[in-house]
Amino acid sequence: TAGEMAAEIGTEAYVVGGFVRDVLLTKSNLDLDLVVESDGIAFAKKLAKRMDGRAKYHRKFKTAVVILPDGQRVDVATARLEYYEYPAALPTVELSSIKMDLYRRDFTINALAVHINPSSFGKLVDFFGSQRDLKDKTIRVLHALSFVEDPTRIMRAIRFEQRFDFKIGGQTLNLIKNALKLNLINKLSGYRLTHEMRIILNEANVLRSIERMNELGVLEAIHPLMELNSARSQVIAELERLMSWYSLLYLEPPLSVWKTYFLAMCMGVSKAKMEQIYDRFSFSPSERREFIHLRDAVFWAAGNIMNIKQEMKPSEIYETLSPVPLEGVLFIMARTKREMIKKYVSQYLTSLRLKTIDVTGEDLKDLGLEPGPLYSEFLNQVKLACLDGKLKGRD
Ligand code: ATP
Fold it and tell me: In the structure, how many helices (H) and strands (E) does the chain have?
């Protein structure tokens, strides 16, 4: 439909970027990015109307998102013509704007387009050797100033390299090293840094990505206290194992994977020094509070649980771990080498935490008890008694 519409309007439309890359790699990708060589917003409006979807706009960036009735998102962008810094690159008038659009992208593997106008539907547009790089499994930038233009591409290069098991090309690797020497990572805003770090830590192969960031000096550039050491590596490796175990259990609530890894990456940093790291990532006051609370809770619970000599009763395990956010609980499990403690944490995650009791605050009220803080204390005692089998609870 989009291709037909483009032909009607007399413009050219292309599917670009990650979607094309993933089709060629036979991987699934649900994000569809369109580039049109005309007003993208007007195009998106029309597309939304024709497909019974909704459109949202970003006037400043001349982009729009169309959400189709089945939930599929289609990003529509206007081919950028404002990049005249490289006028020599213009080959033919018809292809100029799509070529320019592709030229400002991060890597050759992301700079492919597929023409969708009916006259040449499905024709692959490859100006920069993208197919060759996909075949050679190489991450390559399009020009030497790429990392100067946008240092987040350093982290993106590592992300794609590890995700697809590709290699960063020799020249590109040198450009990354130069960019690091020039301290370009320092120029990145905390917001963009956090965004890229979150994405990397939410992907598979976290340890390999972190090791690669470390090897290239990215972590040190972000903050010297974040350099990897063997203790951190071990915990991250163990966390990777636990994350697959945890996700297979389909337990609720889902946990914030990246925060768990972030805890491990900052292992051993004092509370006071953590402030420097929060500053570097420009955490908001609430994010900061959340991490402080997470680390304090872990510190307190780990101190208690590591010191135990004899067996712990289920109620004791529950009382120790329930104040800790889930991310912290998994972190404690990954950090300990004692099988007994791993067993306790696993018992907490898979059973104790999920037990419910039949008594509610309403029941207490019905009994004529005055509502107040004693309610929750009472209910808590009932729960603890249930966990130890002194009262009957529900699984
Ligand atoms: P993913 O599968 O992780 O979503 P993606 O390639 O779709 O990968 P996005 O971040 O959604 O990644 O970006 C979409 C496209 O926009 C990319 O394929 C790339 O062409 C371009 N792009 C994104 N970020 C940058 C950047 N920092 N510099 C240049 N081009 C970028």
Answer: 20, 9
Length of the chain measured in residues = 395
**CA 109-111-117 angle, 5° bins:** 125
Q: What is the mean pLDDT of residues 325-349?
A: 92
Among 145-154, 244-253, 374-383, where is mean pLDDT lowest? 374-383
Which 8-state DSSP code applies to residue 105?
S
Pairwise CA distance, residues 274 & 383, whole Å: 36
Instruction: Evaluate: CB of 159 within 6 angstroms of ligand 1.
Output: no
The best mutation among 20, 100, 106 to test binding of ligand 1, ranked by most ligand atoms within 8 Å of the C-beta, falls on: 106
Please name which of 286, 287, 201, 197 lies closest in space to residue 243, comparing C-alpha atoms. Answer: 201
CA dist., res. 167 & res. 363, Å (int): 63
Give residue 245's identity as a one-letter amino acid code. W
User: How far is 224 from 63, CA to CA, in rounded Å?
Assistant: 38
Ligand 1: which of 30, 74, 105 to mutate, judged by most atoms within 8 Å of the beta carbon? 105
DSSP code, position 78: E
**Is there an atom of ligand 1 within 6 Å of 152 CB?**
yes
Determine the atom of ligand 1 nearest the C-alpha atom of 153: 27
What is the CA(318)–ligand 1 centre distance, in A?
A: 44
Angle at 105 between CA 102 and CA 110, to 5 degrees: 85
| Atom number of ligand 1 nearest to Cα 106 | 29
How far apart, in whole angstroms, are the C-alpha atoms of residue 339 and residue 153? 41
Identify the DSSP state of 311: P
For 5, 301, 387, the CA distances from 36, given in Å and listed in that order, are: 11, 55, 61
Q: What is the DSSP letter of 162?
A: H
Segment 70-80, tens digit of pLDDT: 888 999 998 86
pTM (2 decimals)?
0.87
Integer Cα distance of 162 and 218 in angstroms: 15
Q: Helix crossing, 285-306 with 339-350: angle to 10°? A: 130
